[in-house]
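Researcher: Next sequence.
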Amino acid sequence: QYTVQNAHYFGGVPEMIVVCVNSLVNATETEPEWTMFPPSAPPELAATYDLTGRDIVECLMPYVNGHYSTLTGKDNTAIAGFSMGGREALLTAFAYQDMFGYVGAFSSASFGENVISSSDYVPDFALDEGSDGFRYVQITVSRFDTLAGVSANIHEKLDAIGVEHTYEIKSALIGHSPSVWRPALNTFVHNIFV
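Model: Next structure:
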């Protein structure tokens, strides 16, 4: 909250409503058991997280728009996240291209069955026919993140389909941590809704 507030008060970025999403979309809002060793993630883990986009679009956005003074449409709607949230931000934005104009993925988790792993697998993203694309896409990762290969692969996939984006590797910041995500979020909010 302080990153966004400071960006507004001291950096002149537009005011915005920030909604933090619980991506554990199941009856108990809990994560299935998993370990750090392959196969690290049970199949239901991806299914639990991958309902995030539908939950945002069908439940959360109508509620927020119905209860707060919002500007709607893709020119006024951004999605971003770190780690698993970065994964879900990308999947949601590509699934609902008519709704999101700005996308940020910071230290994104992987996309295959082992969704929390060092896998560099990324799906073949595609722009919908007639889509006008995104206004701003930002991929940020630390050079020393165990998941750096995922972000590199996302960068390559976006290049391959002609999606303009920024790809930022933080050399001075270490690991899969808030030391990377906070400055990434600061950069992101300075480049959206402009």
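Model: The chain has a mean pLDDT of 89. The chain has six helices and four strands.
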